[in-house]
């Protein structure tokens, strides 16, 4: 278990509902998929990279809604830059996708 944090520290993490509108399989990476994500009118679109290529295909993500952390500092991954993080369940076998119901509005805050 990670160290205990204060509630105010947790509030710094902004998680929102986003829809994957494009998936790119980068030729330069054996692990990464690159997603273009619509996070609603307030946040807009972001590019998110995730190391899930080994377990999932483009069809597992395209036009589906997932929870995203939208206020992480950008991170260079190969020649690309990730502007956030898709939330998943950490499992020893493989990461498990958290697919949100279509009723979840784009850009809605997760709490």
How does this model look, in words?
The protein is mostly beta strands. It has two helices and nine strands. The protein has a single domain (10-97), classed as Beta Barrel (OB fold (Dihydrolipoamide Acetyltransferase, E2P)). The model has no long low-confidence stretch (mean pLDDT 97). Helix content is 8%, strand content 35%. It starts with 6 loop residues before the first helix and ends in a 14-residue tail after the last strand.
Architecture (CATH level 2) name: Beta Barrel
Order of helices and strands: HEEHEEEEEEE
Outline type: globular
Strand percent estimate: 35-45%
Total helical segments: 2
| Gyration radius, in Å | 14 Å
Name of the top-level CATH class: Mainly Beta
Q: On the 0-100 scale, what is the average pLDDT?
A: 97
Strand order of the largest sheet: 3-2-1-4-7
Q: Unreliable segments (pLDDT under 50, ≥5 consecutive)?
A: none
Number of domains: 1
CATH superfamily: Nucleic acid-binding proteins
Structural class designation: mainly beta
The strand count comes to: 9
| Biggest sheet architecture | 5 strands, antiparallel
Q: Estimate the helix proportion, in percent.
A: under 10%
Question: At the third CATH level, what is the topology name?
Answer: OB fold (Dihydrolipoamide Acetyltransferase, E2P)
Describe the secondary structure blueprint for this structure.
Blueprint: H1 7-11, E1 15-24, E2 33-38, H2 40-43, E3 45-50, E4 65-69, E5 75-77, E6 80-82, E7 85-86, E8 88-89, E9 96-97
């Amino acid at each position: 278990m990670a160290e205990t944090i204060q509630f105010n520290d947790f509030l710094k993490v902004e998680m929102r509902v986003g829809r994957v509108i494009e998936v790119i399989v980068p030729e330069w990476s054996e692990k990464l998929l690159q997603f273009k994500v619509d996070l609603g009118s307030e946040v807009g679109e972001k590019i998110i990279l995730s190391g899930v290529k080994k377990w999932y295909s483009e069809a597992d993500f395209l036009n589906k809604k997932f929870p995203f952390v939208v206020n992480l500092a950008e991170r260079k991954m190969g020649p690309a830059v990730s502007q956030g993080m898709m939330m998943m369940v950490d499992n020893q076998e493989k990461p498990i996708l958290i697919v949100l119901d279509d009723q979840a509005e784009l850009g809605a805050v997760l709490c």
